[in-house]
Amino acid sequence: MRGNRRRLYALLFRAAAATLRTFALDPRYLGAEPAITMVLHTWGQTLVEHVHVHCVVSGGGLALDGSTWVALPMGKKTRRRPFLFPVAALSAVFRGKHLAGLRRARTRGQLRFAGDSAVLADPPQWQHLLAALASRDWVVYCKRPFAGPAQVLTYLSRYTHRVAISNRRLRSVGDGVVRFVYHDYADHDRLKEMSLAAPELLRRFLLHVVPRGFMRIRHYGLTANRHRQDKLPRCRELLGVPPPPSPPTDPAPPSEPDTATSSADSTAALCPHCGTPLRIVELLPVTGRDPLAPTPPDTS
């Protein structure tokens, strides 16, 4: 189904967001509009496909009439739930919404079937796939932010503008083989080394290049584009949180062009393929970090 990545990635976002809002708006669980931020993550430590979205959900929400901030309810005789919503129920509802989205996409002719998925163009084969997916337990994984919300956002920020593997994990490249280190989470998070032929590593790497223009970070609920200008200030007011500092309104005018730099650019090396002058855009400091040094856990 890789020919439908844009459609399927978008469906993953929509189904996850709809599931979370369904529970949040239910008075049994919260009865309020939450803030939801999602980040698409498609790879595992060995670059195999592991498509999922990380979801950061506020621990409460704005009442539907905007009158108050609703926090996780706690009754005197009711033990607090370990998470905002019941995890098993989340998994079942998410499965239902995702499969319903697949059915709609198929009915509207929005899916293409080619290569290994060509067999799914046959209606009985398609129905067999849906039945198999519906019969399995789907996983919604919830985890406490042990070091607080800031640590969660720091963790996710490492994946917003990079793909699949960082340079520090590479050990060597030579004779058509690439060696890199990875954490084996199935073996007590042990650090191991893997060797892949260069074409295979490139194949795995390219699996995680998202379609052009696809937004890997999306916001829903209170932080959605259509709501945040009005609702976030109200949330800050109810929670007693000061507004964020205003961005500068008068940016400095652009400086005069550096003739020395321009002259240097004119004599810069040229790209051997397109002839465009090459120029330095950034110098990265040498950190001296050992690629085998422990790194923060990666739940992919």
Describe what you observe in this structure.
The chain has 300 residues and is an alpha+beta fold. It has two domains: 2-164 and 214-244, no CATH class; 166-206, no CATH class. Helices cover 31% and strands 18% of the residues. It has seven helices and nine strands; from the N terminus they run αβββββαααβββαβαα. The strands form three sheets. It has a three-stranded antiparallel beta sheet. Helix 1 (5-25) crosses helix 2 (87-107). The relative contact order is 0.15.
Detail the topology: elements first, then pairings.
Elements: H1 5-25, E1 32-33, E2 35-43, E3 49-57, E4 60-63, E5 69-71, H2 87-107, H3 123-134, H4 149-157, E6 170-174, E7 177-184, E8 190-197, H5 198-206, E9 217-221, H6 228-239, H7 259-266
Antiparallel strand pairs: 1-4, 2-3, 2-9, 4-5, 6-7, 7-8
How far is the N terminus from the C terminus?
Answer: 21 Å
- Give average pLDDT, whole number: 84
| Low-pLDDT regions | 259-266
Secondary-structure element sequence?
HEEEEEHHHEEEHEHH
Structural category is alpha+beta
Question: Which strand order spans the largest sheet, edge to edge or round the barrel?
Answer: 1-4-5
Rg calc: 24 Å
What does the main sheet amount to?
Answer: 3 strands, antiparallel
Strand count:
9
Number of helices: 7
Per DSSP, what share of the residues sits in E-state strands of 2 or more residues? Answer: 15-25%
Considering the chains and any ligands shown, give keywords for the structure:
7 helices, single chain, three-stranded antiparallel β-sheet, 300 residues
